[in-house]
Specification:
Elements lengths: L8 H12 L15 H19 L3 H7 L2 E2 L5 E2 L4 H10 L18 H14 L1 H20 L2 H13 L2 E6 L15 E4 L5 E11 L8 E9 L10 E7 L1 E3 L5 E4 L2 E6 L10 E14 L5 H37 L23 H33 L3 H36 L11 H9 L8 H12 L6 H18 L5 H24 L4 H36 L7 H17 L3 H9 L15
Parallel strand pairs: 3-6
Antiparallel strand pairs: 1-2, 4-5, 5-11, 6-7, 7-11, 8-9, 10-11
Helix pairs in contact: 1-9, 2-5, 5-6, 5-8, 5-9, 6-7, 6-8, 8-9, 8-10, 8-11, 9-10, 9-15, 9-16, 10-11, 10-12, 10-13, 10-15, 12-15, 13-14, 13-15, 14-15, 14-17, 15-16, 15-17
The structure holds flavin-adenine dinucleotide.
């Protein structure tokens, strides 16, 4: 039986109401348009589109993959092109894009909710529009008015797609090693020459044009990250009147055969004196590309959630149906020869672990999208700065923790299927294969952890960290004042104390010996993630108690009661890991660095 998917519309609405508080931000541009009816329509229509159009192509895409032809063209799997046409016609790419270039200007929060649905339904497909959105952000922030007018409308409508070209054969994490060169031309354009590898959506048959954003070095630039510039390099040059002109001298040399996301073309791109246009200032390319990378990092974190969600849904359905063994406490289905898998506490452990992660991660992702909105649209500079601080601090945590855990829960969901999970037909092994890349690309997770401890903690004198800890203190104080929430609030206070202890240890030891900071980075990031999840679970538990006391008319009693059970699971069975993580973070680097190279 192939895997199925139902978009979690109700849970998303719960988060929008009780965590994000969409209604409280009506004063901001774009939020007034997001009326409750509009939000419901977008979520329900979005669910219909991804369930009916994208999800049925998920296994097809995995089986067929993309095909490179002798003339350098790439075709996507059966049905992708038609589905993309429907995506464009439905205006799905326009939701949160700026109005002045044809977007709807709605809050990022709504776009993010749709992105989760889309990515669960078909991760490989979702990457074509996903990368386009990142490229749109970079051009919108760093491009000239002329570039914005020329490229954004067609990218936002989806008629053209976008890519990001950083990686080269000898250079992945360390972008200072980039060899691609850009030579200035008399007319103000540039000629780019070099090879980029692993370029997602680099060549395909779904859109009329592909706008590549390419990092390269200009003559005389330092041979380090300081010498990198960013260029727009279109597949087809664009004429003054906006029509498509000559084919640019760039081509797809090969496509990768890889572990997952087969429906997304991963291309080796050759730039052979290709015409490009500088974005922003020369040698400030990495800063401009970071706009795209930050959007992409949040999107990749969302991939972890999305694959864990669809894997969980299928595992839960399977566990209900599959009869195997008897409950430890005696038969629960005496009319059958065996009980369902759901009677086994260890199966429930795997399901509830995934569920607590999914619902916590959804709250975190939508809240982060709100911070992105507030960072641009809040009324006062102080509010904009506060939102930017929090988002900047938590971006590496969202990218790394959500993908590490998304992979872990997808694997556990596969485990619930026993041997059948390992068999292609059920689709579970595809989720595991697809989501695995999310831990690697967009800055491998270890590099995210270094970004957190090496840069983000101390950024602006630690302003973001202080604001984050205050935010957590606020919700702990509220929890302590309510007897129903007291145990959860105490558990969170304890985890937060461990985080503060590890932070203090880092301040004392990380500067003196940077290897201590490197050795602490991953457990520290995971510890911070648990505290954030604790924050959201306390907020959600509080809202659930209040809604139940009020009659729970909106989502029903069963919904809120289940939320409280899942909250308790988080506080009793996930948050206690904070102690182990703090101990690991403070263990230091000495032993890690002790083996000599020839002993490995
Ligand atoms: C399917 C797929 C799609 C991709 N899509 C794109 C794309 O669209 N555009 C694009 O430009 N690239 C893309 N990439 C490339 C991807 O971003 C890189 O593979 C990734 O950044 C890691 O670089 P690398 O493979 O060279 O690994 P390396 O940089 O060699 O790193 C190897 C390992 O060492 C660790 N490491 C490296 N340096 C450090 C350090 N300083 N400190 C601590 N640990 C370190 C890393 O965490 C990693 O686990 C894609 C890759 C794949 C497989």
């Amino acid at each position: 039986m192939p895997a199925t998917y139902r978009a979690p519309v109700k849970d998303t609405q719960f988060v929008l109401k009780h965590v994000v508080g969409l209604d409280r931000h009506r004063n901001l541009p774009g939020f007034a348009d997001a009326t409750p009816d509009m939000v419901t329509a977008i979520l329900e229509e979005g669910a219909k589109f991804v369930e009916g159009v994208l999800h049925p192509l998920n296994q097809v895409g995995d089986r067929e993959g993309c095909t490179l032809h002798a003339d350098g063209t790439v075709t996507t799997p059966t049905g992708f092109k038609e589905a993309y046409r429907q995506y464009v016609e439905g205006g799905w790419g326009t939701l949160m894009s700026p109005k002045e270039y044809g977007g709807q200007g709605l809050p990022h929060v709504l776009g993010s909710a749709f992105e989760e649905f889309q990515t669960s339904a078909n991760m490989a497909f979702s990457m074509y529009p996903g990368l386009t959105m990142g490229a749109v952000s970079a051009i919108h922030v760093a491009g000239s008015d002329e570039q914005k007018a020329k490229y954004l409308p067609n990218m936002i409508s989806g008629h053209w797609t976008g890519t990001m070209n950083l990686t080269e054969p000898h250079c992945g994490t360390d972008l200072g090693l980039i060899k691609t060169r850009a030579e200035p031309q008399a007319d103000g354009s540039w000629k780019l020459t070099g090879t980029k590898i692993f370029i997602s959506s680099g060549e395909h048959d779904m859109a009329e044009n592909i706008i590549h954003l390419v990092l390269a070095k200009t003559p005389g630039a330092p041979d380090s990250v300081k010498g990198i510039s960013l260029f727009i390099v279109p597949k087809f040059l664009v004429n003054e009147d906006g029509s498509l002109g000559a084919r640019n001298s760039l081509s797809c040399g090969s496509i990768e055969h890889k572990m997952g996301i087969h429906g997304n073309s991963t291309c080796l791109m050759n730039y052979d004196s290709a015409t490009g246009y500088l974005v922003g200032e020369e040698m400030k390319g990495l800063k401009a590309m970071f706009i795209m990378m930050n959007v992409a990092r949040l999107g990749v974190g969302g991939q972890g959630l999305a694959q864990s969600e669809i894997a969980y849904q299928n595992a839960a359905a399977y566990a209900k149906d599959r009869l195997q063994g008897r409950a430890l406490t005696g038969p629960k289905q005496p009319d059958q020869k065996a009980d369902s898998l759901l009677v086994h506490p260890d199966v429930r452990r795997m399901l509830l672990d995934a569920r607590a992660f999914n619902e916590g991660a959804r709250a975190l992702c939508l809240w982060a999208a709100l911070q992105a909105d507030l960072a641009h649209k809040a009324e006062t500079p102080l509010e904009r700065e506060a939102a930017d601080d929090l988002l900047s601090l938590l971006t590496p945590v969202i990218k790394a923790y959500l993908t590490d855990e998304g992979y872990a829960h997808a694997t556990n969901a596969q485990q619930v299927f026993g041997g059948h999970g390992y068999i292609q037909e059920w689709g579970m092994e595809q989720f595991v294969r697809d989501v695995r890349i999310a831990m690697i690309y967009e800055g491998a997770n270890g590099v995210q952890a270094l970004d957190l401890v090496g840069r983000k903690l101390a950024q602006n004198g630690g302003r973001g960290l202080r604001a984050f800890l205050q935010m957590v203190d606020g919700v702990i104080a509220e929890g302590r004042a309510d007897a129903r929430l007291m145990p959860h609030a105490e558990a969170l206070a304890d985890a937060k104390a461990r985080l503060e202890q590890a932070t203090f240890w880092l301040m004392q030891n990380g500067m003196a010996n940077p290897d201590h900071a490197g050795a602490a980075s991953t457990p520290y990031l995971r510890l911070m993630a648990l505290v954030i999840f604790g924050y959201f679970w306390l907020v959600m538990a509080k809202a659930s108690h209040e809604a139940l006391a009020d009659g729970a008319a909106d989502f029903g009693r069963e919904f809120y009661e289940a939320k409280l059970i899942t909250a308790r699971h988080f506080f009793e069975r996930q948050l206690p890991d904070a102690h182990g993580l703090a101990a690991k973070a403070m263990a230091g680097a000495d032993n890690l660095m002790a083996l000599a190279a020839d002993q490995f």
